[in-house]
Amino acid sequence: MPNNAPKSAEVIIDVPFFDVDAMQVVWHGHYVKYLEVARCELLRSFHYDYNEMSESGYMWPIVDMSLKYVGSALFAHKIKVTATLKEWENRLRIDYLITDVASGKKLTKASTTQVAIDMKTRQMCFESPAVLFEKLGYAKP
């Protein structure tokens, strides 16, 4: 990616009470929500959020997700979720790192893969559409 194109974004999340179990540990399913918050911030950073995707004629569903839990996020702790765009030529692959803000301790590693679907034909695209390359500051090869 060009040096001037944003390729990473981070968000800080205050772990809310309604995301934790009786031991005040975040329930594993809520991490997906945290990834989504960081992914939206990353997409906004290069002006291709979900509204802009739709306006361009494409939807980008998640087709694969992987999470590795290393430590536990706890109630009232602040966590940092960093989303980094790793692939974009044929799909969007985003890697994530969730850390505890106070300690810097790594809590979770994750990745998601999204593919472009032409909204008119409902067909999957085998390479990313030109609009994505434009948003990232590239000419499509």
Automatic annotation (TrEMBL):
Keywords: Hydrolase. It comes from the Bacteria. The keyword Hydrolase applies. Belongs to the 4-hydroxybenzoyl-CoA thioesterase family. PANTHER family: 4-HYDROXYBENZOYL-COA THIOESTERASE FAMILY MEMBER (PTHR31793), NOVEL THIOESTERASE SUPERFAMILY DOMAIN AND SAPOSIN A-TYPE DOMAIN CONTAINING PROTEIN (0610012H03RIK) (PTHR31793:SF27). This is Acyl-CoA thioesterase. It comes from Rheinheimera aquimaris.
